[in-house]
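Fig. S4 source data, part A: sequence.
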Amino acid sequence: MTKPIRVMIVDDHDMIRNGLTVFLEAFDDLELVGEAADGEEAIRLCATVRPNVILMDLVMPDMDGVAATRAIRQAYPAVQVIALTSFGDQDLVQRALQAGAASYLLKNASIDDLAHAIRTACSN
């Protein structure tokens, strides 16, 4: 069996992180390796948990997802970031993609769509 894809969740809402954790546990090939409540915590955690893919909320206090994505992609170019947004703010999504996000998903995406996005990001 191949090693599971190491996933980190970054979101300032506990409920979203908990929901994504439950989702990840449903898939044998996805492994949750860390959770962060803001961008700065995500950058610090990256060094120790070494995720393959980060599910990154874009709207967070202090350091937002765009700035965190940019910093993580500079420090850890192999880490893929999937931007998560609860609304289709094209300007925000565009800035996340310019910062280095591999793709984006709306938070109400199905678990199959999310799993597919994680696998796709990891295969690039």
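Fig. S4 source data, part B ends here. Residues 13 and 37 are 7 Å apart (CA to CA).
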